[in-house]
Amino acid sequence: MTKQEKVDFVINTLKELYPTIPIPLDHKDPYTLLIAVLMSAQSTDVRVNQITPLLFEKADNPYDMIKLTVDEIREIIKPVGLSPMKSKGIHGLSQILIDKHNGEVPKTYEALEALPAVGHKTAAVVLSQAFGIPAFPVDTHIHRLMYRWGFTNGKNVVQTEKDAKRLFPEALWNDLHLQIIWYGREYSPARGWNLDKDIITKTIGRKTVINDYYKKKS
Questions:
Q1: Is 139 considered catalytic here?
Q2: How do residues 1-39 score in pLDDT, each as one tens digit?
Q3: Which residues form the HhH-GPD domain (predicted)?
């Protein structure tokens, strides 16, 4: 298979598996999505979805959020981990949204990444999922699969994002990054990986990855 045929195979397989794509983090608007994504760093989406309703019951907009103290926010979000940093970030970015953006979440990488505790990946998720702006947020699943499929050298997520954007049509980015995440969770996990179930890697995967898999099995 040529590189392009492999890319097409991935796109078509993911379309078949995920014709409708669930959004991993529960939210109702750009602000609640931004907070949920920030909270998901080094935590699971399942855990975040358990905690965000408790926080949003008290504050689901920046104006209510700044009425809470950093300690109050921290107490609520403690179960998701890294709560000291995240609670400061949530309070701080809520204040900045009010001061600089009329309480609205901005729609550019630059403005989003200027907010406390908001990195490139968080900004990319918000742009793609809240505003429909083409972005390719790279999480651990996408980073792992792009390497397994031989689409990137796997050095770092910055390189993986560049390679993904170069290989896949921009019109598909917003759907595709989610489809790859779901596929990674269900068929190509880091632990407990069963190559026989992982149709994409089995068909187009990097030779060294497949050989290593069988070596470990034997």
A1: yes
A2: 999 999 999 999 999 999 999 989 999 999 999 999 999
A3: 39-186
